[in-house]
Amino acid sequence: MAAFDPTTLLAAACELDRLGFEIVANEDLDQPVGGLFQRLAVITCTPAGEVPINVRVTIDTGKLNWSRHLHPAETSFTGYDGQFKKGVDLGLLPVLEAGDVRVTRASLEVSDCGGEHVLAWFAELQQDTNVEDGFELLKLAMRHQGDWGRRGAQHVMNVTVPVQDLAHESSIPSSLVCMNGQIDDISQRFNLSLDERGARVFAQTEICCTGVPDFSRLPESCTFGSRGPVLVWFSATEPGLPFSIVYTRAEAWRESSDHTTPDSIAFLA
Question: pTM of the full predicted structure?
């Protein structure tokens, strides 16, 4: 098998760039990252001053539930290897047939994100398809996703997809270039579970980089409260009156030695 996650790779590259390293990425990564995946990304870094620099980006979708208009059921089918396989009968879905490749997609609801949805895409490929390089996988996915947008679905079919329960690790050190340092390794980890109950996807990219960052590339710091009192207020995303305008002075702010947790503040309970 093969796997490649451009989203956590790009996020890790951007974090290294933020730390002062000049990173050159493959032009295929010059794509917008969905806001949902940006919000789900957890970024950790080696403490400042330590060498080598390690940046790790993890995205765990948590439980994804099939959209309510779907009624998936457990089934079985004969795979191209002649063996019986477990499958998920997703019912009627639009299917695009582009030459010998068939493509479909199904919607999943993200449990922890207020009803936001992601799309699970499936493309059945020829057995001799080149998947040796991660960027080839990215090109395949983007091509078939683009075909869907340009040509639309041609047929409605009863769709079955394979049950997935897998873990995979890979090393892809040549996928990025650092101009003022050296990338020692880029590792990726994957877990994918998918059945009639839903799905869960985990992807992680870790970059180990040595060298001295260019500190002139770092943004200036701005600490509100270091030079004067702070005004805090809230607003809706559309224009309108502000909500709850609060002027605070230093004597109202918690001391750094105060270990009170937010859960222990009565009005937040």
Answer: 0.80
